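Retry 2 of 3 after timeout on previous attempt. Resubmitting structure tokens to design endpoint.
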């Protein structure tokens, strides 16, 4: 009886241990990333994502509606109640951006600062529209680019991004895409 109880306990512990194993992270260089891009980059699309923006001990959550057509992107940043926090227009050819922020900016100062840095949105666009082909959903893929860690956590079967993280020093932006068109 004691042997059966010990064996059953060991089997339960071994079975439950697999549930808590994290996905491995595969690090690739930026050059490897460039060599493993799809032949056709995602150009005209509409996507919706939930986001969490972490800055030290603060979290800002909301939704992003991102539409791209004819090298012009429009990004709407929405708060959890679907109120517009920012409207951003990107010109992909001229590399210009135009940001219109909501009137109450004090509470989202760090997020707004992040959005206003010109290279940040173009960097996000580059990696969101071009996930690496060699990606496996069994592992996360980490790319170090300039002073950023870009982590692809999940890719949809149609090679669109499902979950991606942008990390830098004390900030992190997590995007979880819920729809692509």
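Retry 2 succeeded. Sequence:
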């Amino acid at each position: 009886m004691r042997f059966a109880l010990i064996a059953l306990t060991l089997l339960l512990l071994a079975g439950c241990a697999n549930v808590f194993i994290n996905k491995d992270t595969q690090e690739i260089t930026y050059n490897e990333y460039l060599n493993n891009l799809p032949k056709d980059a995602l150009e005209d699309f509409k996507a919706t994502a939930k986001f969490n923006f972490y800055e030290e001990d603060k979290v800002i959550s909301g939704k992003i509606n991102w539409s791209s057509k004819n090298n012009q992107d429009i990004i709407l940043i929405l708060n959890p109640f679907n109120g517009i926090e920012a409207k951003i227009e990107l010109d992909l050819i001229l590399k210009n951006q135009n940001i219109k922020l909501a009137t109450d900016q004090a509470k989202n100062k760090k997020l707004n600062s992040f959005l206003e840095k010109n290279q940040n949105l173009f960097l996000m666009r580059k990696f969101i529209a071009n996930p690496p082909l060699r990606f496996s959903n069994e592992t996360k893929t980490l790319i170090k680019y300039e002073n950023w860690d870009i982590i692809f956590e999940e890719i949809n079967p149609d090679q669109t991004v499902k979950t991606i993280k942008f990390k830098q020093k004390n900030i992190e932006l997590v995007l979880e895409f819920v729809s692509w068109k």
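Attempt log closed. The first helix runs from residue 2 to 17.
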